[in-house]
Amino acid sequence: MNVPIVRAVADLRTIVAGWRREAASIAVVPTMGALHEGHLSLVRAALEKADRVIVTLFVNPKQFNSAADLAAYPRTEVEDAAKLAPLGAHLLYAPDAAEIYPEGFATAVSVGGVSEGLCGAFRPGHFDGVATVVAKLFLQTGADLAFFGEKDFQQLHVVRRMARDLDIPITVIGCPTVREEDGLALSSRNVRLSLAERLAAPKLASILHTAAGQIANGAPVSLTLAEARAAILSAGYREVEYLELRADADLRPLNALYCPARLLVAAWLGNTRLIDNVEVVPLLSLSS
Ligand SMILES: Nc1ncnc2c1ncn2[C@@H]1O[C@H](COP(=O)(O)OP(=O)(O)OP(=O)(O)O)[C@@H](O)[C@H]1O
Ligand SMILES: CC(C)(CO)[C@@H](O)C(=O)[O-]
Ligand code: BAL
């Protein structure tokens, strides 16, 4: 069976109203397409928690910092729809650009605090673009639950803050990062890696895991991060944008480990920018 594809918000609302008459709960999984197992894990999680699941597919120009990145972004709608059907997703909402940004569109949603630093520092305007489009997708779908990947950990925080601050009645659920067997976090941008880059890429995750283990065992944070940064460069990455320890709950910067934390990184491998993060749990607080 095929998954129905809807392109107009009016049609989407008619379908959602029918589901509401059946008292069905509704989940949304926002994506930019080029679906891989990471996305599909969100769809499966959504199907476990809600009666109806809407996957959205919109390559959002407002969140790209470079025209080249936007132009190179993979667009594979037919294949994406074919991957969703066997899972049992109920609808693919792939809106026309005018349904999201109609003529004269002049509003932006800007989230402070959690969007500052990390990717926010290196991709100016990116999180405004994400918050704006996700606010629209939440309001257009009227979903009760939304599923996002922890791979984009700062995005998860931005979206959660936005929904709370705007009183959008939706619960934002974070799902664990899905990885290749060699540890590389799945990402639509991985297809841009050359063979040699693809072989070097998983070292980012392994260095991150090693550093997280050392910090959890009490190693000094700044020294461990300096060594990990050097190791990433030695592994063939040409630039480390950031490598930081932040509190898991609110992303505040940490110089020492005294609460559940995340170690987050963004680094360039050739012309591809990869991000990743791992949990760092203080061992002392677990045993006490
Ligand atoms: N490896 C992954 N594991 C779990 N969730 C993921 C993974 N990769 C992406 N996601 C999630 O899928 C949703 C849509 O992400 P998106 O379409 O940007 O895919 P992507 O692979 O992250 O692409 P890219 O990073 O190249 O933009 C987001 O919530 C994102 O966090
Ligand atoms: C959440 C999102 C679909 C908004 O365009 C995008 O940032 C993504 O794919 O992670
Ligand atoms: N995965 C987050 C979307 C982006 O990189 O633009």
How would you describe the overall organization of this protein?
There is one protein chain. The chain is α/β, with parallel strands linked by helices. The protein has 2 domains: 5-175, Rossmann fold, CATH 3.40.50.620; 188-281, Pantoate--beta-alanine Ligase, Chain: A,domain 2, CATH 3.30.1300.10. It contains 12 helices and 9 strands. The protein has helices at 9-21, 37-49, 67-72, 77-84, 97-100, 119-122, 126-141, 153-165, 195-200, 203-216, 221-234, 283-287; strands spanning 5-6, 26-31, 52-57, 91-93, 145-149, 171-175, 239-247, 261-269, 272-280. The strands form 2 sheets. Strands 1-4-3-2-5-6 form a 6-stranded parallel β-sheet, sandwiched between helices. The chain has a 3-stranded antiparallel β-sheet with strand order 7-8-9, covered by helices on one side. Strand 2, helix 2 (37-49) and strand 3 form a beta-alpha-beta unit. Helix 10 packs antiparallel against helix 11. The chain starts with a strand and ends with a helix. The relative contact order is 0.13. The mean pLDDT is 96. Residues 31-32, 38-39, 41-42, 148-149, 151-152, 175, 177-178, 185-189 line the site of adenosine-5'-triphosphate (ATP). The site of pantoate has 10 residues, from strand 2 and helix 7. It is found in: Cytoplasm. Beta-alanine binds at residue 63.
CATH topology type of the largest domain: Rossmann fold
* Intertermini distance: 53 Å
Instruction: From the alpha carbons, calculate the radius of gyration and give it in angstroms.
Output: 19 Å
- Major sheet description: 6 strands, parallel
- Listing every helix as H and every strand as E from the N terminus to the C terminus, the arrangement reads EHEHEHHEHHHEHEHHHEEEH
The number of domains is 2
Shape: globular
User: According to CATH, what is the class of the largest domain?
Assistant: Alpha Beta
Derived from helix and strand composition plus strand pairing, the structural class reads: alpha/beta
Order of strands across the main sheet: 1-4-3-2-5-6
Going by CATH, what is the homologous superfamily of the largest domain?
Answer: HUPs
Helix content: 40-55%
| Number of distinct helices | 12
What are the bound molecules?
A: adenosine-5'-triphosphate, pantoate, beta-alanine
Mean pLDDT across the residues is 96
Fraction in beta strands: 15-25%
Provide the CATH architecture of the largest domain.
Answer: 3-Layer(aba) Sandwich
- Low-pLDDT windows of residues: none
Number of strands: 9
Keywords: ATP-binding, Cytoplasm, Ligase, Nucleotide-binding, Pantothenate biosynthesis
Organism: Roseovarius azorensis
Catalytic activity: (R)-pantoate + beta-alanine + ATP = (R)-pantothenate + AMP + diphosphate + H(+)
EC number: 6.3.2.1
